[in-house]
Amino acid sequence: MAIMSMLAGAPELSFTELRNSLKMTDGNLTTHIRTLQKSGYVTVSKSFRENRPLTTCSLTASGIRAFSRYISLLEGIVKQAQQSK
């Protein structure tokens, strides 16, 4: 969910930005991104900037909907917990 949370706050982020912000290894981040990509939640674009490869990630429409549903679910849980106090 950390990857989804970061991508929800930006139109797109580079692999390096995600890796550094989340303090993940390249391999671990790649595995998670592939899983999100296969689920249709994240799109990955590869390009070049200043003759260097650049990989960027962004949420798909499906990913935005899924993340919104998840946030709504969490809000419901928090409200329920507050009411039971």
Summarize the structure.
The protein is an alpha+beta fold and 85 residues long. It is elongated.
Q: Would you kindly provide a written description of the structure presented here, covering whatever features stand out?
A:
The chain has 85 residues and is of the alpha+beta class. It has a single domain (2-83), classed as Winged helix-like DNA-binding domain superfamily/Winged helix DNA-binding domain (Arc Repressor Mutant, subunit A, Orthogonal Bundle). The protein contains four helices and three strands; from the N terminus they run H-E-H-H-E-E-H. The chain has helices spanning 2-8, 15-22, 26-38, 61-83, and strands at 13-14, 42-49, 52-59. It has a three-stranded antiparallel sheet with strand order 1-3-2. The model has no long low-confidence stretch (mean pLDDT 95).
Q: Strand sequence of the main sheet, in spatial order?
A: 1-3-2
**How far apart are the termini?**
28 Å
What fraction of residues sit in β-strands?
15-25%
What is the CATH architecture descriptor? Orthogonal Bundle
* Class by SSE composition: alpha+beta
Mean pLDDT: 95
Number of strands: 3
Poorly predicted regions: none
The CATH class name reads Mainly Alpha
CATH topology name, in short, is Arc Repressor Mutant, subunit A
The main pleated sheet reads as: 3 strands, antiparallel
Proportion in helices: 55-70%
Shape: elongated
What do we call the CATH homologous superfamily?
Winged helix-like DNA-binding domain superfamily/Winged helix DNA-binding domain
Number of domains: 1
Radius of gyration: 15 Å
The SSE string, one letter per element, is: HEHHEEH
Number of helices: 4
